Structure prediction request, 301 residues.
Amino acid sequence: MPALICGSLAFDTITNFPGRFSQQILPDQVHILNVSFLVPTLRREFGGCAGNIAYTLQALGGQPVVMAALGNDGGDYLARLQGWGADTSLVLRDDATYTAQAIIITDTDNNQITAFHPGAMQQAHRIDLPSRDDLQIAIIAPDGREAMIKRARQLGDAGIPFIFDPGQQLPMFDGSELRRFVERASWVAVNDYEGRMLCDRTGLTLEAMSKLDLQGVIVTLGHEGCDLWIDGRCERIPGVAAEQVVDPTGCGDAFRGALLFGLERGWSLRRSVELGNRIGALKIACRGGQNHVLDRAALGV
Prediction:
């Protein structure tokens, strides 16, 4: 079953700071913050939430349909997606802008500071949901504000269940807008920080949220696993120890790709989340969001 992946396609410039942000930023001086981090390593990777999610889903044997925008420098990225066999019929090329760009600094504690230029992502709302009978599940990952609102409305009207994954775009929406997303979604996936912000802005606790029409609320907790909220009850799904901790970039997206893979096959939410934890542990041992190799036989998929 093809899965519609709505979100960003971006180029990631990834650097590492061989120290701790907490030792460089003085809490009582943040009102005059002026810091510089020496980053001895630098590399450029294919990224963006839609691209990263599609990569993992395709690697697991899924069929990603990518709905996203690329800029005038996105030819190589489009060829990469097509090289996997991903459906790129809904990828917009905007020749007037650059592809979205993320500049990421990671410290020794795996904390990250990111600067993001949206570029062509701001044109993603120009893409319309097609009339296709084979699209039975979707995810709304971080994208342009107008695009995310439009996707939720169109998917809701079409009766296509979707995961609402606001990610770093969550602050763009007020409480009433976030409530509308939640009311239309079938699942909500956030990390623990985003979960607290979502609750603060909507006025809903995770327990109350999970008692709505949602099939579940997933709160990822890094190496600790995730909390799975279903109908007011919370279950901690333990994390999986990684062989190496190399780069956290894209771990959440890898988790969501696995989550989609399980859900589109009718797996229970718990089983889908367990696979997500395993894939997240594999991804963190690799640099970038699209370089991990998955052994489907070893994973039992």
About this structure: The longest helix spans residues 269-283. The domain at 2-22+40-289 is CATH 3.40.1190.20 (UDP-N-acetylmuramoyl-L-alanine:D-glutamate ligase). The chain has one domain: 2-22+40-289.
